[in-house]
Specification:
With 415 residues, the chain is an alpha+beta fold. It has 12 helices and 9 strands.
Length: 415
């Protein structure tokens, strides 16, 4: 069976304008084709995502209806030679992750799981046949994928503590265990499940096609961060997977670590986008909100907060650009992406807090107009809440810092 990708839209005639938060004009590092693609993506996000993000966040609903439109723009496909719409750099793909998160961190996470973690697992660990079968399908949005690594009892220590097991029986495998916090897991058509092979104690990857007997996914409710992401608790009870659906080029956690290194850098860009979104919202609010007869943007302490936030963003862009350039150069290592994720997410956390302060009491309200006509916090509350999830996933700040510390000293603090 063959699949045809949805053709991309005609690129915008002009590159996207520089963002106010791009103080050093880093966007100019992108090629003309990349900048035109950014213009299309930004126009889509401004028209179809940003206006609805707060309402969807409040209702804890995802943007599933946009899956085909996202595919049309190439947002699932651009990281892979087999599916990309045009030649592009890791810096461009990182910039796109920032643009997505700037509009809505939930949609950035959805795409990061689908095309980042799941598709990269297939691209890195799959056989030629597996890549031919799945990458076009996933790139076109005809199926949605999830990535099942984290478990109820294991997050940071999955390299050694994975409890989900795989037992080979002839030409198939039997999986047993549980997974937690699996983005897209509540509705995915394909879930990449990582399990420990009982015969050699090595981690292996499996392509679980849903629905499957013994596979149950339950949406995690009452989240207060990334509410537009449908995370799931997954239970696997004697789930049968064919040997042909085992990722053929994964022989242990070291191979899985390649996937995590590549996607961790993109999560740094996502954290950057959260900070940019909060900064833009706080700046707009500060210009519109008057106290003591003039806009609060004219007050020294507000300007100092804006300056610190913009400095955090600028430093984070610089680090993110370089780590992505290193990916293209083939010299990016685990500690490089770990430093980027740790530093950017820490600066993001400070930035969203400063931006919420600027908005005062209105900063705890989702965007929109209040009943008394006072502008609400322009959505700062959503970025403030979503930052906590981004700060934690793809390696906590502590674990990523220890990966850097191991590179510095040659000594591991956690194994």
């Amino acid at each position: 069976m063959t699949f045809t990708l949805i053709p991309p839209q005609v690129a915008a005639s002009d590159p996207a304008d520089l963002l106010d938060a791009d103080f050093y004009a880093f966007q100019n590092l992108l090629t003309d084709a990349e900048q035109r693609a950014v213009a299309d993506i930004r126009a889509f996000l401004d028209a179809e995502v940003r206006p609805h993000a707060d309402d969807l966040w409040e209702r804890a609903e995802s943007l599933r209806h946009l899956v085909p439109r996202i595919a049309e723009l190439g947002l699932y496909a651009n990281g892979f030679a087999e599916t990309r719409h045009f030649d592009n750099s890791a810096v461009f793909r990182g910039w796109v992750a920032m643009e997505l998160s700037r509009a809505d961190p939930s949609i950035a996470t959805f795409i990061g799981v689908h095309s980042g973690l799941a598709m990269t697992s297939i691209a890195v660990g799959g056989s030629d046949e597996q890549k031919a079968e799945w990458l076009p399908v996933l790139a076109s949005g005809q199926a949605v994928a999830a990535f099942g690594l984290t478990e109820p009892g294991h997050g940071s220590d999955t390299a050694r503590g994975l409890e989900t097991t795989a037992e080979r029986r002839g030409d198939h495998w039997v999986l047993n265990g549980a997974k937690r916090w699996i983005g897209n897991g509540a509705f995915a058509d394909l879930v990449v499940i990582w399990a420990r092979d009982l015969s050699d104690d090595q981690v292996k990857g499996f392509l679980v096609r849903t629905p499957a007997a013994g596979f149950a996914a339950t949406k995690i409710e009452r989240k207060q961060s990334l509410r537009g992401v449908e995370n799931a608790d997954i239970v696997l009870e004697d789930v049968v997977v064919a040997e042909s659906d085992r990722l053929q080029r994964i022989d242990g956690f070291r191979d899985l670590a390649v996937v995590l290194r590549l996607t961790r850098a993109d999560v740094a860009w996502q954290g950057l986008g959260v900070g940019v979104g909060a900064y833009e919202a706080a700046l707009a609010y500060a210009k519109a909100r008057t106290q003591f007869g003039k806009p609060i943007a004219s007050f020294q302490l507000v300007q100092e907060k804006l300056a610190v936030a913009l400095s955090n963003i600028t430093a984070s862009i610089a680090l993110s650009v370089r780590v992505s350039q290193m990916q293209d150069e083939g010299i990016q290592a685990d500690h490089h992406s770990a430093m980027a994720k740790a530093f950017v997410s820490a600066r993001m956390r400070e930035t969203v807090a400063l931006c919420r302060e600027i908005c005062g009491g209105n900063g705890i309200q989702l965007g929109g107009q209040s009943q008394v006509g006072i502008p609400a916090g322009y959505g700062v509350a959503r970025y403030f809440a979503d930052a906590e999830a981004v700060f934690t996933f793809e390696g906590t700040y502590d674990m990523n810092s220890l990966i850097v510390g191991r590179a510095i000293t040659g000594l591991s603090a956690f194994v």
